[in-house]
Design brief:
With 301 residues, this protein is α/β, with parallel strands linked by helices. The protein is built from 12 helices and 12 strands. Bound molecules: nicotinamide-adenine-dinucleotide and ketopantoate (KPL). Ketopantoate binds next to α6. Catalyzes the NADPH-dependent reduction of ketopantoate into pantoic acid.
Amino acid sequence: MTWYILGAGSLGSLWACRLARSGLPVGLLLRDRQRLADYQRAGGLTLVEHGQAQHYRLPAHSVTDSPPIQRLLLACKAYDAPAAARQLAPRLQPGAELILLQNGLGSQQAVADSLPGVRCLAASSTEGAFRQADFQVVFAGQGHTWLGDLRGASAAPSWLAELQQAGIAHSWSDDILSRLWRKLAINCAINPLSVLHDCRNGQLRDHQEALQTLCQALQQLLQACGQSSAAQGLLAEVMQVIAATAANFSSMHQDVSQGRRTETDYLLGYACQQARLHGLHLAVLEDLLQRLQERQAAARA
Ligand code: NAD
Ligand code: KPL
């Protein structure tokens, strides 16, 4: 069965190249005919791994000319996912499966709600990739991807064996929401502060008190949302992630400094929205969100 992949960006290309080189059929779905023409001019995707570039001539279609789809990896940013899913809805076959690779929370639910007959799986990944040019992606950080059913525990799909075959490190999770919440909380602790202090992750070690206060507020939120296991030991893991990624700029910092749209609405924005929904007044989070939004607006001006 063909793996259709929407979005030939960083993670979409990384998945597409690894699946294709292990002999699996892959089809790329590009935004429109112009983007398809650009792809055809580039002659395929290039994946740079351990400094070595490999070229892959994968079949591609524009979203509007997509063949019928049984299995789809949605590899766009969270803010593009609901519209992309709506665009592809008429092409999804009965019993189709959709894998949502978005960071944060909120977009997965919006997609699942708009596609009631489709099995929506969510993924949470610690792999790292970036685009060094159009259709050229660098595999920058080995990691792991957890997959699970958004609607709760269910049997793992048989195609996980294909991920194994493609060398994509993964596990099936019976509680993917917990994983997504935990990653969201870690991102909410690190990413906004890295933007506001304009620093690498490691420099956040100078802001222990702020991290501690933030983690307490995030834990309160997680508890209120029924995510107590995602709340446990949050500060300790945040400090571990800061140490492990000390030399890096967070993804949000990179987005802001390069003038790109951020996924804030699906990270700290989502956290604040959920706090309000649960009747919690978490001034620490609200204040951070406001300062972050002001900084993002200033960066765009
Ligand atoms: P990206 O911006 O590199 O790629 C997204 C691609 O989707 C772009 O090429 C864009 O043109 C395309 N796209 C958007 N809407 C489309 C549509 N309607 N039709 C066709 N194509 C469309 O993004 P990315 O870095 O690959 O991130 C994807 C998601 O994975 C994000 O939520 C991100 O937070 C998450 N993530 C990324 C990394 C990473 O290292 N890059 C790691 C973990 C999680
Ligand atoms: O996921 C991250 C990001 O930069 O988005 C880390 C490195 C974990 C920091 O939150």
